[in-house]
Amino acid sequence: MRCLILYYSMTGQAEKAATQAARAAVEAGWDATLCRIGMSDPADALARPMNIAASKKWTQGAQKGIMVPIAFDPPDAPDARYDAVLLFSNTWGDNPSVPIRSFLESDQAKALFAGTPVGVYIVCRRLWQNNLRIVRELVEQAGGHVLAGEAFMHPGGQWGSLIQTITYLYRTDSGRTHFLGFPLPRYGLSDEAMARIPGFTGALLAPAATNQEGKA
What we know:
CATH class of the largest domain: Alpha Beta
Low-confidence stretches: none
Number of domains: 2
Radius of gyration: 17 Å
Number of strands: 9
Number of helices: 7
CATH topology of the largest domain: Rossmann fold
Structural class: alpha/beta
Distance between the termini: 12 Å
Strand content: 15-25%
Shape: globular
């Protein structure tokens, strides 16, 4: 049984989560392939520290559903056939990130998803419902079948996590510990979110395996 694990990661959080899912898939007896989606134009590549203009451009671009040329690492991973696909979708604003949406609306997605069960992991600070809704629609438009989707979030409340995320993206260190005297949550997925990934992955892959065994 083979599964492809697709993700885009600027700050490393989606990559960390995808790697955790790959370990869980292997432990469940699957042959798991990790594949990173990136923006192929060097002018589009994102890195810290960001500036206000860049963050505004890409957040608004995600809201408008813009698409950019993308590349894969390894480059030929999406061309193979898989029994399941696990997709990690970052939240920009309250939409899928531009690289993820660019993939989902591509011809390559149609070829990959045709008749394939898909699990969706929303990697986010807070807003995730609209991201999941859009990803589900686009996967199914491309011919895939979404088994389930779940959000994996950063720690802290709405305002603390927002302040930490903004300052983290504009800096090169590990982020602030306090703002105006108030403690801030650390940047990144919470320990609770990371701990849920193996169980969610196992629950996704079990029915996919059963379905393929039935076809055999």
